[in-house]
Amino acid sequence: MSNKAKDKTKESQILNAAAKHFAINGFDGARVDEIAAEAGVNKATLYYRIGDKAALYDRIFGDMLDNVLENIAKDVMSAQRVEDKFRAYTYAIAQVCNSNEYLSSFILREIASGGVHMSSDALEKMHQIRLALFEIIQLGIDKEEFKPINSFLVHMMLVGTLNFYSASLPIRNKISQKEHTAKTRPDPTLLEVAENISELVLNSIRINSDENAQRGQIRT
Predict the structure, then answer these.
(1) pTM summary value
(2) Measured between alpha carbons, how far is 95 from 97 in angstroms, rounded to an integer?
(3) What is the CATH number of the domain that holds 30?
(4) What is the extent of the structural domain holding 32?
(5) One domain, residues 214 and 117
(6) Domain shared by 76 and 183, yes or no
(7) Using the 8-state DSSP alphabet, how is residue 127 labeled?
(8) For residue 212, is pLDDT > 80?
(9) Which pLDDT does position 177 carry in this prediction?
(10) Where are the alpha helices (DSSP H) in the chain?
(11) Considering its fold, how many domains does the chain have in total?
(12) What pLDDT does 107 receive?
């Protein structure tokens, strides 16, 4: 393995350990020495590679949002149909949440705190992600395929469902053990949940053929 690859691996270990500790303990409760120990490095290496605790937090948040934006740029923009753009948007978020088991708990903690630790750069990236959904929904409305609806509410339906489902895995496992019942089938994966929630929302905002006919009659 080249030195560059080793550095990349070490950096990933630090960021993964930090995401876990921030998710479990929050920003204030996370300790840099414990993060370094779990990543298998000393504090000096951690500070050299990433920076202090605030820099670690910003890096995790920034990388997560960058990955979502990258997925949106790649998959949403290439989709031709409006509904496929909507599905790709949901999947873009789910893929990132699915990449690390602690990211959803990390983001939910920050939301619960009122975003006190979010940088202006992270807020701008979140705005870009929301704007992408607004443009998809507005396109659907303009093409008379979607009913008029508040895009922020739709965003909360998608992001809230995906993050809550992902973060609830330990609790869901405990409930299953408490009930002493064998699952007839495993819980859906996060990517399957993304598909399901996309269809549920699309079914609620889609204009069906009867509604289109009624709109045509009103115009005439």
Answers:
(1) 0.86
(2) 6
(3) 1.10.10.60
(4) 1-51
(5) yes
(6) yes
(7) H
(8) no
(9) 77
(10) 3-29, 32-39, 43-49, 53-71, 82-98, 103-112, 120-142, 151-167, 169-179, 190-205, 209-219
(11) 2
(12) 94
